[in-house]
């Protein structure tokens, strides 16, 4: 057991890191994202100008729980043939059946230096969760990427709401 600075008691994961025992953070955001300490994905999402919720970086942070359908923005980590491409934090988030049930699409971030593994995390999640891989952008994205994603998300949610009526 570990005592955190706010005097909560946290269990430790197999890795030795503290795991949060705090109440989950509930979100109604239709855009959920993960960003590493590089903040590339966070900077891209901020440019979109929409309400978004971030998947926690550290296991000791309160877990995020989706309450509405959402699109996931995910970076790809290096790895050969997809191995290690999906961040562990995103795997943990999607291992929650409620979160997995509400995902409606994926937007992948990556680096073209990864070659065939460019935006592989988005491909993997889309296949496993049976949702569309809606868009791919490199690093922090370009102004054109921001415009395309803003417009694409608006059209996506409009189409989705029409098919559910």
Q: How does this structure look, described?
A:
Helix 1 packs across helix 5. The protein has one domain (23-163): Rossmann fold (3-Layer(aba) Sandwich). 32% of the residues lie in helices and 24% in strands. The protein starts with a strand and ends with a helix. The strands form three sheets. A five-stranded parallel beta sheet has the order 6-5-8-9-10, with helices on both faces. Strands 1-2-3 form a three-stranded antiparallel beta sheet, with no helix packed on it. A two-stranded parallel sheet has the order 4-7. Residues 1-12 have low confidence and may be disordered. It is globular, with a radius of gyration of 16 Å. It contains five helices and ten strands, in the order E-E-E-E-E-H-E-E-E-H-H-E-H-E-H. The chain is α/β, with parallel strands linked by helices and 165 residues long. It has helices at residues 40-48, 88-94, 97-102, 120-129, 143-163, and strands at residues 2-3, 9-12, 18-19, 25-27, 31-33, 53-54, 64-66, 70-75, 103-110, 133-138. 30% of the residues are buried.
């Amino acid at each position: 057991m570990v005592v955190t600075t706010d005097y909560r008691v946290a269990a430790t994961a197999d890795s030795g890191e503290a795991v949060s025992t705090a109440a989950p953070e509930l979100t109604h955001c239709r855009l959920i994202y993960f960003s590493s300490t590089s903040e590339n994905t966070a900077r891209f999402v901020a440019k979109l100008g929409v309400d978004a919720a971030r998947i926690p970086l550290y296991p000791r942070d309160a877990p995020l729980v989706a309450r509405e359908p959402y699109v996931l923005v995910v970076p790809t980590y290096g790895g050969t043939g997809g191995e290690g491409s999906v961040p562990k934090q995103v795997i943990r988030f999607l291992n929650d059946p409620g979160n997995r049930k509400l995902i409606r699409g994926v937007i992948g971030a990556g680096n073209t230096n990864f070659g065939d593994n460019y935006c592989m995390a988005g491909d993997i999640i889309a296949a496993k969760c049976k949702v569309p891989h809606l868009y791919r952008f490199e690093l922090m994205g370009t102004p054109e990427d921001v415009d395309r994603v803003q417009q694409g998300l608006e059209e996506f949610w409009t189409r989705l709401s029409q098919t559910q009526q």
